[in-house]
Structures are given as structure tokens and as C-alpha cells.
Amino acid sequence: MRGSHLFQPNRALGYVSNHIPLNVRYIEQRRENIAVTCIGRSFHVYGCNSFRLIRASRIHDENITALAADGYLTYAAAGNVIYGWRSSVELRKVYRGHEAPVHLLLPFAKHLISVDESSLLKVWVASLAELYLEIPFAKDEFAVSAIVHPASYKNKILLGSAQGGLQLWNLKSGKLVHTFESFNSKVLQLVQAPAIDVIAIGLQSGRIVLLNIKYEQVVLEVHQDWGPVTGISFRTDGYSIMATGSSNGQIVFWDLEEKTIVSTLTAHDDSVTGIHFCANEPLLISSSPDNSLKMWIFDLPDGGARLLRYREGHAASPTCVRYHGASGRNLLSSGEDASLRIFNTVTETLNCSLGKASYNRKASKKAKKKSNDPFCMPAISYFTSETTRDKEWDSIAALHQGLVQVTTWSYDKRRMGELHLVPEAFQNRTRSDFSVTASCLCLSHCGNFVTIGYSSGHVERFNIQSGIHRASYGSPSAHKDYVRGLASDNLNQLIVSGAADGLLKFWHFKLPNTPLIATPIDTVDLTEPITLLRTHREGAMICAALDDFSVLLIDMDTRVVVRRFDGHRGMITDLCFSPDSRWLVTAAQDCTIKVWDIPSSYLIDHFRVAQMCTSLSMSPTSDFLATAHVDYRGINLWANKNLFSHITLRGLNPDLEPPLLDLPTTVCEEDGQGSHLPDTASTDVDELEDALEKINIEYQSPPQLSSALITMSELAASRWQNLLNLDVIKKRNRPRQAPKKPKSAPFFLPTVAGLDLEFDLSQSREASTGKDDATRSHILESKQVDLLTDFGKLLKGALVTDEYDKAIWHLMKLGPTMVDYEIRNLTPFDGGNGSLSVMGSFIRMIIYMLGRKREFELAQSYLSLFLKLHGRTVVENDELSVLLSDLEKAQSEGWSVLEDKLMYGLGVVSNLRNFSA
Known about the structure:
Layout: E1 7-13, E2 23-27, E3 32-38, E4 43-47, E5 52-56, E6 64-69, E7 74-78, E8 81-86, E9 90-96, E10 102-108, E11 111-116, E12 120-125, E13 130-136, E14 144-148, E15 156-161, E16 166-170, E17 175-180, E18 187-192, E19 198-203, E20 207-212, E21 217-223, E22 229-234, E23 241-246, E24 250-255, E25 260-266, E26 274-277, E27 283-288, E28 292-297, E29 306-312, E30 318-324, E31 330-335, E32 339-344, E33 352-356, H1 361-366, E34 380-385, E35 396-400, E36 406-410, E37 415-421, E38 438-443, E39 449-454, E40 459-463, E41 469-473, E42 483-488, E43 494-499, E44 503-508, E45 516-517, E46 522-525, E47 530-536, E48 541-546, E49 551-555, E50 561-565, E51 572-577, E52 583-588, E53 592-597, E54 602-608, E55 613-618, E56 624-629, E57 635-640, H2 685-695, H3 726-732, H4 762-768, H5 790-801, H6 805-813, H7 816-824, H8 836-852, H9 856-876, H10 878-881, H11 884-916
Parallel strand pairs: 41-45
Antiparallel strand pairs: 1-57, 2-3, 3-4, 4-5, 6-7, 7-8, 8-9, 10-11, 11-12, 12-13, 14-15, 15-16, 16-17, 18-19, 19-20, 20-21, 22-23, 23-24, 24-25, 26-27, 27-28, 28-29, 30-31, 31-32, 32-33, 34-35, 35-36, 36-37, 38-39, 39-40, 40-41, 42-43, 43-44, 44-46, 47-48, 48-49, 49-50, 51-52, 52-53, 53-54, ...
């Protein structure tokens, strides 16, 4: 089915990690550690030196259930299939054979070990993707839950089970070596300790056991009080420290020598699923399902850890998304985790968090070491922002689910403000006898006032700088029902309120000396309860979504309904205008997003997504549409195709079924298809590798695109541009002092003149023939008295063969000084070593170069130098002057082609300039 007319999936922001443990390894070529985290159906690769996202993998068919890596491939198990990736984007191997989802992976030398949820263990030959060994386990007796390769144990692996038992297996013989005593608790972690024969075992009961598997002796046993052991790692930089993760976000550091807890760290808001100490460095990397990746450094005076780097997104689904500022680069988003964040659409290094909403920020800072913050406020359901007063005071106001309080935030200072706005009439009341909540709000364009609507029907206005109450609209209240929406104009003249009673009321923003604004200017009855209000201040338009799933457009000046849009089959969740006020984009609970053309009142685009869109916002530059969806922690960007391609818009039937589109991924893709895996079920892996190699072949441009075109050479201009001015350059660069004779080297080989270093091995070749002076002939041959240079010899040979390519190539390799020397020595006069026939061959070479229309500027430069040096000789000798007519013809033909193109281009530019003037 076709996709969207106007939007195509671009990329997703805010995804960092999930419950799959991270994988860390050192890359020699990059000289840094890289961390691989899973984000669902793909994985991310981060460089640990800066936590910069290096690359994102392609999309798998199912969610990734296990990650592992060796020195060559990164292995990702998606369902019952394992994929081997090179550089995260090149699919090299596919391992098929499991019938249940794979949950454990372990690279083992040249093999790969995988365990599925039915406790079937398979050993693969990694390079061939062939099955080497298969070991089934009875799930009710030994359900494999952890796996490790003990250091120095050849061909052996240690398996842990959900029943608490351990087994040591020899994979070469396929036999059970030893069965260890059960721990009566599920084995969650098996990690090799720095000491040989010692394995760290983490149990669901919270016990951590260091077991010497050679003697089956417990070296150390400790217990953490924070729940199951979700991760274990050891420092290797000279300290006997073991770190263990827990299910409540705590990381515990144990002194193995003293057998005591050194310190604890509240690292995450959710379970710590992966921890890893970097080799020989005081650095710990941790990941969690709270969508964060953090690096901790141990440099505090007490030996504790502090946060060094981090990457994080929303720990729960975003509830509201809005662009902030006119640049279209910054996105504000609130989440169900009560946090407010800034996402930059250009670079993720500028992403930051404004923190979590708190009743008492100072008390929250003191309680941050606790697992649960008692001062944390409910999630932000809606917020609004203005840029006018960003630098002076708080510029963001936010609503919270179920609260009457409205909080303020500072975009410039990147933190929550001090104000909690509550009308005086609603203060000092307990929850048992008071259930009024703040339901909607809007900020004035000047950034000074925030107007708040309440579920009781009240509408109040506050000064956002001081928090002082400024006005109440209506007496005793603005509406008799739930206030659903508020809007204001650019000049602070009007306040518009809409409520569940279906009334849209227009109020004076402020009257002189009138603190109580009792009566509205005008009232419009929309006949249906209002769901929400959005406004386009520059266009003086208000959009009201109604409970009957329709959308109305009201002109703020005339206060009449000018457009009505019907087509959604569910409650409207959010809507926004395009910056030029021509489009209206709506999202509803029917999981559809529709685009309406306001001037024509037609539906011009619609599409459906798998999860309901809860919030959307159009970029001020119209390049992206940002959306947030249920159960998705990221923010999805959709590119506006109308900006970079011609699109013919036509009216659509709102009752038609919209096409289903996949949500964007982390990597930008074309045509909205996403970077999904190829159909490897029907494609052989070897054929796929061959196809990838063909795609990666570098394109090489041919020497000449067309014989009708003039082709220049690839030589630098310094190699030919100054040939006519070498005398002046030599005189200018003449040294002030006479050059000193260098000391003779103890041994050297003669070199051949040219830019490339080449040794003259002609003498060594004669010596290698084995002839001594007595046997060598002393009769001079004719070729030995030939005083021509190498270039002259090539020209002389071309007299017979008419092949000038070797002579041209030889001349192109020489520098300007040697080119001048070679052309000077073509003449037999004035001390030259050439001949008239060689000079004629040079002229024919120039004619050949002009005729094939290649190296055009070199031919012109060489010809200019030749005529400057030997022009009189050419004119005085009939043998050479005969060639001048052919030379003139070749020159005029080549120049006419170039001149026609230049004159045509100059004429077109001149006409366009005159037309525009």
C-alpha cells in the first residue's frame, strides 16, 4: 500500500537502552572502548571516550533478546534467529535452527554458543554459520539461565540454572564434566573473577558467591539487601573492588579483602541490567531499562564514584512534545516519568534534562540517594512555552496529572523553577474535600502571564515572574463545566476559553483598574463538548476539537466558525497548525494522523501508525513533524517531502482507510521503508555477502566522459602553469650565498630525474650479467653514442610506431624544471642533444593531444614553452614548418568547442541578468 503523500519517516530521538544488558569491548583501531546497547529491534554503538553515538544497526524482524560480540562480529538474537553484524550495518552471518527465542549468547573462540528459552544449547562454527554441537536440557530440571567460559579452562563452559545448580561441560567431547551443589536460588549472573578458577555467582535471593570451581570451595559469600543480583563486574586497575547491580537501581561496591561494603550508588531509576568496569581504568559503565547509559569515575577523596558521562532519554512514554524557538532545532518533551527534556534535532550532544518535577527541589536533592523520591510530583500532562523572556525568568508552565498546582520551568537555566501556582481560593484544602485540578493553560506572547483553566470552571491569570495572581475571569467562574482549552492573541487583547459545556468564550485580557473580569465579550456555542483548543496567533485562528471527533476552525476576529473537518473515528488527542497556517495536522485515538488543507477545506494526506499518537508538533521551519506515541519512549520525526520534491496535492475521501506506516528508526532512511533486514530466508548468506561487496566497490570515473568534450588533466596547476616564467622564478629564488657542497655519502645509488624517487639500476644490471672488464667488448655501439634524453628517445621511437602515450605519460611525471630541460634539449642547435626529427615528433605529439581532447591545458602549456624556445628553428626549417598547418587546425578545432560552450553560458547568464533587472 502506498505511503503518506507529505511525510516520510526520518528518525527517532531519545532511545538509549532497554532491559538487555549492555556489551562493552575494546576496539584496537579506534583505541577506545565501545558500548553496545539494545533499544528494541535494533542496537546502538557508543564510543566511551565521549558517549557519542557511532552508529545504529539495521532493524530486525523481532525485538532483540540477547547481545554479544567478539573481535569481528556483533551478534544479535531476534526471536529464534541470530544475526552476525560487521560494523553494525553489514549482515555477514545468519544462524538458524532454534525453535524458541534465544536468550543467551556467548562467543567462544571460533565458535558461538546460544541458548534458547527451551534450554536447548547450540554451538555454532562462527565463520561458517554451521551447527557444531547441540545439547538439550530438561527445562524442569536444569533451565539454563546463565553461561560463562572460565578462564584457562580449555573447551569448557559453566552453566547456571533457574533451579540453582551449576554444571561444567566439555564442548569438544560434548560431555558433562562436573555437577556442583545447588544454591537453591535462581542463578542470574556468572562472571569470571580476576583470580583463576574463581567464578562470581549472582543469585535471585541477593546472594553473591565467589566459588573456586577447581576445588568447589566458596572463597567469599556476601548478601545485598536490594533484591536480585542483576550484574557483577570487577575492577582491574589495582583495587580489589567488586560491583554488583540490583533491581532497584542501586550499585553496591564490595571490598573483597575486607569483605565489607565500601559504598553504594543510586545509579538508575530502574533495575541495573548491565555493569562493566573498563579494563585497567577506574571507570564503570552501567545501563538500565530507564533508557539511560552512564559512566562513573572513581576519583572522589573517599574512593567513591561520581557521574562522568551519560546518555539518557525518557524513562516512560512522552506525554507532550513542542518545538521551542524559531530555529526548529530544539524540542521540549515531557514524559510519564515526570521529567522535562530538551532534544536537539541536529546533534544529540546538545540534549539535556531539566530535571524531574518535585514538590521540594532541595529536599529531593537530599533524598536522591534513596531509591524512591517521596517529593516527586505526578507526570506532566501538558506544558506550554514562550521564547520572549527566556533569559529573564521562567518561560515554561506545566500541568500535572491530578494536581491543582502549575509548575514553572526555566529553559535558559535548564531547571525547574521555584513557583507553584495555585489560586488563593484553592489553597489550604486537603485532598479529601477538594478535587479541583488544573486542566489547561496558555502563556501570553510577551512571556509575562500564564492563564490557567481548572476542572471547576475557573480561569485564573498569574504573573509568571513573581507568581502573583493578577485576574479571575467570570463570576463566580468562567464556565460551569470542565475548562478544556485556553488561547490568547499576540497583542494580549483577548483570552479565549473553551469548556466541556460546548461554549467558547472571548474575554478582554485586561481592563483598566478592574481586577475581576466578570463578563465575556462574546460567546460561541459549538453544540458539542470541547476536547481541546489550539491557536495560530499570527493567523488569528483558533482550532477546537469536539467530543464528536470533529474539528472546527474559528476566526478570532470575526468569532465565527469558518471551517469544519470530519473524518476521525476516535477522540482527538492533539493537533497543530503548519507555520504558514495552510495546513492543520490532527491526531486521534483511532491511531491516524490527518493533514487538512485550510483554504480548500480538503483532506490532503492521512496515514495510520501502530500505536496511538498522543502529541504532535510542526517545526517552525516546516521541515519536520514531531510525534509521541503510546508505549514508545522516543520522539519520532517525520520529514516534510513537500520541501525537497514537487508534490501534487489532491483532495482525499476522509472515509478511506489510511495506509499503515512504520515509525521512524534511529537511522535516517529513504522512502519511509526503514532499514529492515533483507529477506534472508530466501537469500543465501554467501550471495548476500557478494551483493554487499559489489555495492561497496568504489566508483572510478573514466579518463574521458565523451570525445565531444574537452577534458583537463588531473595534474596540479603548479606542474604546468609557470612553465613560461621559470627564468623569472629561478632568478627570484636564487640563494644569497653560494650553495655548499654536501658531504659525500658513504654509499648511494644514482637516481632518475623526476618527481618520483626512482633509482638508476642500469649499472647494477650490467654488473649482474657476470661480465668482467676482460670479456666486455670495447667497441662502441651506435645506441651508446645517442645523446638523447629519455623523453627524446621516446619521441624518436614514436616516429616509427606513432604511439605518443608513453612520451606524454613520461612528461606528465616530471616537474616544471625537468619539463623545461627536456623541451630545451629537443633541438640539435645551441648545445642541444636533439634532432629535427625529434622536434617534429614533439609537434605531432601535441597534435595528437589536441586531437583526442584530453590533457588540454597541458598541451597548450607544453606548446607555448616549445614555441618560446624553438619558434625560430621551426620557422626556418621546412621539415618542421610543414607541420604548422596541421597544428593550427587541431588547435582551432579544440578551441572552437570550448569557446562555443563558454559563449553560450555567458549569453544565458547575461539574458537572465537583464531579465531580472
